[in-house]
Amino acid sequence: MWQHAGHAHAGTCMTSKRLCFEPGHKPKCLVVVDDTAEWDRAVYYASRWAIRAGGGVVMLRIIEPEQQTQEWLGVADIMRAEAQEAAEAALDRAAGRANGIAAITPERVIREGAPMEQLLAVIDEDPEIAMLVLAANPGAEGPGPLVSLLAHALGTFPIPVTIISGALSDQSVDSLS
User: Fold this and answer.
1) pTM to 2 decimals?
2) Residue 72 banded pLDDT, cuts 50, 70, 90
3) Cβ atoms 37, 53 nearer than 8 A
4) What is the pLDDT of residue 20?
5) Where are the alpha helices (DSSP H) in 20-163?
6) What's phi and psi for 99, nearest 5 deg?
7) Does CATH place domain 36-175 in 3.40.50.620?
8) Cβ proximity of 1 and 9 under 8 Å
9) In this protein, which residues make up the domain named UspA (predicted)?
């Protein structure tokens, strides 16, 4: 159980050593591809970072499970298949963007479950992940669901987190990455 400031999150503690800069390993940047308008900024930054660090990019799409009752299980299976297809399409778009930016083919991961639990599990399972990159919505409605959720955990998060403003242009990100 991972604990932070009185909040328990199901998942594993970070017990694996980060190997990202050890001989024979390469650092990877983890980026979450979600349905927000600003996901592209995170992918852009992560791709530029990969060029400079000589590393790679891992793109994660999290499917949140629907509540289901016994009589709706057939519908749930159809919804799960549709969510899987949507996840693949989103990762196709993001991978195409990363390839266009940095001529890289990112790793693709699709997980189903609670976002924080899945995020921590992916980090724990891949000791080459050196950093998480998220993009924040610049609008008045707030930074976005994952950035908001993560804000409560930053003090104990197992790897560095970079949050990019969704308002930054490609040229601005270029000068920062």
Assistant:
1) 0.82
2) low
3) no
4) 74
5) 39-53, 73-102, 115-125, 145-151
6) -65, -40
7) yes
8) yes
9) 28-164
